[in-house]
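User: These chains co-purify. Model them together.
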Amino acid sequence: MTVAKGAKTARPAVSPDSAQARLLALLRDNGPMSLAELGERLDLPRTRLVSEVDTLLASGLIQDKGRAPSRVGRPSTLLALDSAIRYGAIDLGATSIDIEITDGYLEPVAGLSEEVDVKAGPAAILQRITELFADLRRDGAFDRLNAIGIGVPGPVDVEHGMPISPPIMPGWDRYPLRATLEMEFGCPAIVDNDANIMSVGEKYRGIARNVRNYLFVKVGTGIGCGIHIDGRIYRGDNGCAGDIGHIRLDSRGPQCVCGNNGCLEAYFGGSALSRHAEAAARSGTSPYLAARLEAAGVVTARDVGKGAIQRDPVCLRLVRDGGSRLGEVLAGLISFINPSMIVIGGGLAELGNQLLAEVRTVIYQRSIPVATGDLPIVLSELGSRAGVTGAALIASDLLIRQP
Amino acid sequence: MTVAKGAKTARPAVSPDSAQARLLALLRDNGPMSLAELGERLDLPRTRLVSEVDTLLASGLIQDKGRAPSRVGRPSTLLALDSAIRYGAIDLGATSIDIEITDGYLEPVAGLSEEVDVKAGPAAILQRITELFADLRRDGAFDRLNAIGIGVPGPVDVEHGMPISPPIMPGWDRYPLRATLEMEFGCPAIVDNDANIMSVGEKYRGIARNVRNYLFVKVGTGIGCGIHIDGRIYRGDNGCAGDIGHIRLDSRGPQCVCGNNGCLEAYFGGSALSRHAEAAARSGTSPYLAARLEAAGVVTARDVGKGAIQRDPVCLRLVRDGGSRLGEVLAGLISFINPSMIVIGGGLAELGNQLLAEVRTVIYQRSIPVATGDLPIVLSELGSRAGVTGAALIASDLLIRQP
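Assistant: Joint model of the two components:
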């Protein structure tokens, strides 16, 4: 190692398959490794490896941590990611925002969550994001950010970094979200759909770790789906693949916000459940929900979940009906795409086992048997952290592939 | 070129990315090419290229056709696929079989089609296939086959070369179809689903040539779908992806052969149309169909198509109702997978523009606008030849990648 530590020089953009990118990804995914181990994993001759490592040391992305314990032969150098690397991960939902600052290994350093209304529009939301990051910086979570990843509740043109005709995000259509974040934080940024970042997080560190073809079904205010094909996220021709909330269940069904009738979201999801809960509270059919409404002035999908746990019959029925509708849509998609796993996550995944039981029943009844024979249908392991985990991962990919 | 022409030696199996495989694929896809052109396209040094070409000449797969016209510099050798290469392509449907013998460029040399009933079971069908190939051999279409590809109307375990729980193929479950064909014809064989081979054919030589993410919707006796993602066919976890005929439209709908209610195939497809046509003929609501029934003793989906062209109101309604049901299922799948193109093929694609108009109307009404904005929904360009074209292509891949 011939380079002065701490010197930072620009690094040209590299392909994801380059030795440098693979080396950085190995460190991110495995933690500090010895030069010898890296040489084995990358299958590089020693002189080439040393030269790549020198470049990365010079760029300040990795650190020489001294001698590594050696299994055999001479001791090797231990290499680690620079301890100052910080990613900003943002999971923007319809009614909530979760922010996490992670280190280079995507371990959380600090986090914040609060309720927001995405309908407030990009100016107000970005203002709030900037304030929250300023709080985190003041608390010492980071000095500067190396990259930012954000998920938003609508279709996204990932290449251009902007939401595209997002039905529940008025004012956000083609808003230059990536460019704005890059300007504000002085680092590269990437924008994706919220179900997509959750699916990426769950595949990286959750229950879908070893699965190549899988669906992450996000049940929040709306319903979306992240699709993984052959181990990679699939975004579709316009970046709107997985928009399953407006698949029609019944042409005679209730009106949906999208203008059509009988969409999945007209029956289920946070919006629909809140509506049904309020009706049940006001009509008195559910004393439990009526009490909640009286106490808080409002009832939400969360109240329905709590009521179901307490076995309030109306809440139980709402969860079961919703699960059944979701199961019906998923049954068709499973026959179509024949995945290896279905993961259910998002805010309403806290409806938990009641929801899961109903979804499973309908799917096993309705999909072709060969597609469901050994199909696991499970809840997200990462829960509310799936989104920020995925956002941090796609942010880290930006750093790994670019200077 | 130092190898005696006509000498045939075994060639070890090669990866699809090997120089030999790429060279054979270039010749298959472009026709005869000069050594100089091949060198450019393969980006190989001349000595390496000559050595690969010598191996292929020795194996008898390619032929030296003498001097090629040269654009600049010294003249180059013209190389062609061996003129004796023959592929056997079989498209087995529920009620029909199409066979084509092609040369190494997948150009048809001879073909046969006849009605069969796949329910007759594997022994009878394979007996008939053997007889048909014997006829074709007798007529001089081939001396021996280099590889065979077959599509069947049900889910297939491609790796093991056998149908898996095919609902409309009693007796075929796990029948060792590939092994039987390989034994019978003494060449490698590959088995796939019929919608899949059609989708592969349409992508290779049809309207989907330049499309990376697309759905080929086969409307025959049953309804199936070939799925292409990122330029490659996607078969799903158990090989049954695309089985869309049993997606449920209405839980109160008519009973389906699969035991459930309200499946797409319970409303539309060759089986459903024949049933509806017979009912309309017997009840007298359609004088056109009644006359067909009287004349032929039976009415089929084809009669409905002819009746629609002659603007018989009942036939028109049947086609429109069917198109509308199909459109409803496709609308959901389009929201989910956001493809770049939808191609409609299979036997009932001859219902043509009436069908297409109805499918389009429903899709444009029901899918999310960002997914349908510039989505072409078109009829198969290859028509009844889509299946055999795809079967020949997957057969040729076997030869290209193996001795």
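The mean pLDDT of chain A is 90.
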